[in-house]
Design a protein that fits this description.
mainly alpha; Farnesyl Diphosphate Synthase; two-stranded antiparallel sheet; 1% strand; globular; magnesium; transferase; metal-binding; Polyprenyl_synt_CS
């Protein structure tokens, strides 16, 4: 499962600092920062986050430092720190706790990637060898644990509430991963189960990122809740749109070869809709026959299934679901004042709704 718009190689300049070239649109995120002052403020936070990330993972043991910096230095879109930076715009984005809060979120995210790569037996992450393939599964797991510990240590400096929120977010992440691993219970709707998994594994951390931005920027409680609700919903929308790109894209927009999930037997939303469909036309019936086996590893069957999915009612329904989440995310911004920061957040909703059309 690809995390939302965030696991390709990131744009960084010398010394690991983010390049300011082309910053008006944040790459594959489709985020537009039309206001120069907003752009400068957000980039300032992200620059400081890059510096603090490297400092925060340093250890007295050179090997631990090397392994912990492995994914930090591989780049990434820094989607979670970006939402912290944007959330802080509804208060004071220069508040001293904004950058540490963003670092906590990114460290927590990076830790999950080390663990995900072990579970998925991944060979590559962000264009570089994954930690488990470069070293071992045991090292990757332990480095992930180390990053969780570093995140908790920094959160402690932000106060009791930050520690509590980070711990609860981590709990939701773990519950989401367990639910994905175990699968739906007997009688449970597979689509509802899948959406719950995404909310836990992906939406929860993005929600807390937006919440932290508002909290540590000093936004009002109403605005903080609006940001958190937006973060979770847009995070789910991004993941679902990645599911669709894996099927619908002729390119590698999703960060992997189209049809990878289908080949690996990952039951993403379009596949779940297709399996549950009752359409009686020959194409839908044939598609259900192929998908019933799980992973589609045969090249001819894979090509046939991919073609059928691209023309299926299931893909159309999945697109409608993505658009519904994107519209819901936009609606959750209603309590926020009209401002360049709110319009930037709205641009993410437009992007996620349109990228799979």
């Amino acid at each position: 499962m690809v995390n939302p718009a965030g696991e390709g190689t990131g744009a960084t300049g010398s010394g690991g600092r983010r390049s300011r070239q082309g910053a008006g649109q944040f790459g594959a995120l489709g985020l537009y920062l039309a206001d120069p002052r907003l752009e400068e403020s957000v980039l300032s936070v992200l620059d400081d986050v890059e510096t603090e990330l490297r400092a925060s993972v340093a250890s007295a043991d050179p090997f631990v430092t090397e392994a912990a910096r492995h994914l930090v230095e591989a780049g990434g879109k820094r989607f979670r720190p970006l939402l912290v930076a944007l959330g802080a715009q509804f208060g004071d984005p220069t508040a001293p706790q904004v950058v540490p809060a963003a670092v906590v979120m990114e460290l927590t995210h990076l830790a999950t990637l080390y663990h995900d790569d072990v579970m998925d037996e991944a060979a590559v992450r962000r264009g570089a060898p994954s930690a488990n393939s470069r070293w071992t599964n045991s090292v990757a797991i332990l480095v992930g644990d180390y990053l969780f510990a570093r995140a908790a240590d920094i959160a402690a400096d932000l106060g009791t509430e930050a520690v509590r929120l980070q711990a609860r977010t981590f709990s939701r992440l773990v519950h989401g991963q367990i639910a994905e691993t175990v699968g739906p219970r007997p009688g449970e709707d597979p689509v509802a189960h899948y959406l719950q998994v995404i909310a836990g594994k992906t939406g929860s951390l993005i929600a807390t990122s937006a919440r932290f931005g508002g909290m540590f920027g000093g936004a009002t409680p109403e605005h903080i809740e609006a940001l958190a609700g937006y973060g979770e919903t847009v995070g789910v929308a991004f993941q679902l749109s990645d599911d669709l790109l894996d099927i619908a894209s002729e390119s590698v927009q999703s960060g992997k070869t189209p049809g990878t999930d289908l080949r690996e037997g990952v039951p993403t939303l379009p596949v779940l809709y297709a399996r549950a469909g009752d359409d009686s036309d020959a194409a839908s019936v044939r598609l259900r026959e192929i998908l019933a086996a799980g992973a589609v590893t045969d090249d001819d069957l894979h090509a046939e299934a991919l073609g059928l999915l691209r023309e299926s009612p299931a893909l159309k329904r999945a697109r409608e679901t993505v658009r519904s989440y994107a519209e819901d995310a936009r609606a959750k911004l209603a309590p926020l004042p009209d401002s360049p920061a709110r319009r930037a957040l709205e641009s993410l909703c437009d992007f996620v709704a349109d990228r799979t059309s």
